[in-house]
Amino acid sequence: MENNLPLIPQYLSAPLQVLWFEPDDLAVCILSFMVASIFKGFFWFLILIGPFIYMRLKLKYPKSFLKHMLYFTGIKELKYYPAIFYKKFNE
């Protein structure tokens, strides 16, 4: 008899990972690959150096600082949060 129940992850709070990369690390890898494939030349070193620098930088800041930096620059909106200019917020 087969078990058709969905798989439950062992740790629910564990972040999604591919090898040792988290999703934001993968985004930096893909972005550096895109830049290297467009500009060619010595930009191929960016594929190795870009994620390494980002991982080192990420250790110095709190969790999900990249998402907040994108929000403060106006590139990305945060869902389910009030706008930055609200004085009061009632939950």
Molecular structure report:
- It is a single chain.
- With 91 residues, the protein is mainly α.
- The model has no long low-confidence stretch (mean pLDDT 79).
- Helix content is 42%, strand content 0%.
- The chain has a domain at 23-63.
- Helix 1 (23-39) packs antiparallel against helix 2 (46-58).
- It is flat.
Please specify the SSE layout and strand pairing:
Blueprint: H1 23-39, H2 46-58, H3 65-72
Helix pairs in contact: 1-2
Would you tell me the structural class of the helices and strands?
Answer: mainly alpha
Q: What is the helix/strand order?
A: HHH
Overall pLDDT metric: 79
Percentage of helical residues?
Answer: 40-55%
Overall shape: it is flat
Distance between the termini: 48 Å
Q: What gyration radius follows from the Cα positions, in whole Å? A: 19 Å
Main pleated-sheet profile:
none
Number of strands: 0
> How many helical stretches?
3
Poorly predicted regions: none
Tell me the fraction of residues in β-strands, as a range: under 5%
List descriptors.
3 helices; 91 residues; 0% strand; 42% helix; mainly alpha
Short description:
The chain is mainly alpha-helical.
